[in-house]
Amino acid sequence: MLKTFQSIFKVPELRKRILFTVFILLIYRLGGHVPVPGIYGPDLIKYFSSLAGGGLIDLYDMFAGGAFKNATVFALGIMPYISASIIIQLLGAVVPYFQKLQKEGEEGRKKINQLTRYGTVLISALQAFGIAKLLINLDSARADLNVVTIGGLQFYFMVIITLASGTVFIMWLGEQITERGLGNGISLIIFIGIIARLPNALLNEARQVIIGMRPYIVEFFLIAVMVVTVAAVILLTQGMRKIPVQYAKRVIGRKIYGGQSTHIPLRVNTAGVMPIIFAQSIMFLPQTVTQLFPNSDIMQSFARYFDVTSVVYWIVYGAMIVFFTYFYTAIAFNPVDVADNMRKSGGFIPGVRPGKKTSEYIDHILTRITLPGSIFLAIVAIFPYIVSKVTEVGYDFSSFFGGTSLLIMVGVALDTLQQIESHLLMRHYDGFMKKGKLKGRRG
Predict the structure, then answer these.
(1) pTM of structure
(2) What residue ranges do the domains of the chain occupy?
């Protein structure tokens, strides 16, 4: 393993990509500490500290790398870009214009990216306006807080311009990593924001042990559970079903094309982390609605059922994750298109007729492997709340036991390692994930 790490810096192109990626991520983390003008940070942090953990604000703050609660220029994070991407992707499933763009190859992809950027600017501006309105209302509702230091339209203009520009700059940083760095830039930005929360969470846990509030045996148990959970998430992320595909031989002139065997990799978790994000966003709506009626006993009783520590919340949350896993898988993977492309290329699945029968066969297998994947995904998402309730560990630390945080960290880490390995193998070096040495000249 040590030799593998040494080999990374022996490849000039790989070394430049890694250093460039680290440099961009460093800029992102530095920008996350630049405050927005017109906002008094200590009072805002005081307000967020008074809220219960594990809510929608904590979820958004996680994606923003802690910048949301600190009211910095990167407070919106990359979420507006993700929202715009999801909207464009959903439109591609129902709107003919976007379906046409998806089939136009590179030119269509460029047009979709441009529309996604416009959507990011619009969404970030709307969200920034909402945040400005929230802060002004917060000052009016709480006499002990003085969050807004500049009043009037000047405050709205400053917040909208600053936060929207911050999101656009983050989007540009992510694109630079994707083009000139290593890995997917947007995913790495989210990844580094989540990882940034880990040291504070570990320090808080260590402080609990030192002052005697939690025994050592509990911490050792939690570490063991975390290791097992990470291994299970890796199996979920990497698990796939391979469908064999055979290509018929074609004689063109004096050359023979085709005849090789390959496979279609169907992942157990095709939807990735999106079902958890969708379900989590919807599950926070009841909490938001009940907060509008603080004096209603009926609404407060209803709110208790949708508290993150409630068993009812866990069951409904898990069921919604299963539903959205099938929903997003149907959007992300189209068996009809796969079968049609195979038929045009002369490919077929042994024992299955090309065309409609092939698409039905692929859809049948995809439906069967998605069920256990969706159930396991629901268990992983609920697990942090169970750990937090049973062990009385803070949500900041228990969130690393599963849910969105762990899935993103594992997925991005595996993807980045695979890209590093591909660069090493191209230069005849040993990779991270394969044993044995490659034959041939090194260097």
Answers:
(1) 0.75
(2) 1-196+408-443, 214-401
